[in-house]
Task: structure prediction
Amino acid sequence: MGMKASDEGKRKIKVALEKKKLKPLAKETLQKVTLELHISETTWKAFVYAERLLGNETFKRCCELLDLNWVEIVDSLQTSKYNWNSAPSPEPNFYGRDRELAILKQSVLSDRYRWVILYGFGGIGKTQLAVKLGAQVQNQFDRLIWQKLSYTTPKDKLLTDLLERLSLDNAQITSNLVEGFLEELKRQRILIILDEQDLYEEGKHTDGNRDSYKDYCNFLHQLSLERHESCIVLTSRERPENIGAAASLIKAYEIKELDVDAGCNILKYIELPKDLTFNEQTGSELVQRYGGNPLALKLVAFLIHDSFDGNVREFLNKHERSLVVPDGIEIILKSLTKTLSKFEKNILQYIAKASDSVSLDELYENLPTEMYYSDLSKVLQTLKGRSLIIGDSEGNEVFCTLQPMVRKFVQRQLT
Result:
């Protein structure tokens, strides 16, 4: 199932390297490793520092190079078929989401979707929901791997890492990585959770990331069309495009705001030096103002604690007409809107100025004349996919609005 060194094993590796007068990542050491073991620098580093499980034979050969007995080095507790090494710890104050978990479990276990996408606004709780989902369904799979997904990482590098974590030795990994990966998805039932890291991370090259993001989505889409019993779960800040043609194989599920009770529980049990003071009415008002977003509620809770001695009502009264957008949410919104087109920004600006929901007809009549009605529908779909606008329908008419934090940001930053 794969091996990695224990804490005592890491110490013995360090001593063995010193005995052989080898520095772990020195150029001479890496050349020796490449020539004698035929493994990559990344694999050698993972062995030395016990960063993740390695294939059994690869691990043993690394030990032989250092004249170590692998039995004395290996961490027997880590040779698990469920590999959570890079996953975050479960959130102790996790509330709500029973309905979402039930739907997602059915999608993975009963409906046997091959690709399940959890998408939604930053901070809404996609990663922690994926942790809960994985823990509840892992016993129905032969293997589980949690993998952080950075779109700056080349796809071949990701596939190599995944194949190595599936305990395949380098000799077993075919030169065609996609073919090899697909064979593993067919050979055993695997649950792979890809946790998106930086599609919109501040300071990254967003345009390049978006191209890589689309390439990854196209790749996962193609995998979902192949016949296998495995499942890939992706957390994402937006709904991937062009998945409708494979609707029976792909489940895209939007993670929306927490209900008021779950949001109030976050406020009630968040770890602060002093508890917040609020009643049912003020707690409900605060949760609704911040769109039931767990991250926003936690960030604003610290602000209330530090600046208002924990008094939620005082905070709400002070900012009755001027919503405070926490810095963490503002960073997300800046990156989400950075690559928007002129038309997309115009739509957000118009809706932000309106005092009520806006219909499609009203939007079309008040936006630049060079925009066609068909263009409007596509743009709205993109904005909904990024959770920037909220759509609703009454009869045959569709209406759009913004949640309060987005409205405030657009009024201040995009107008």
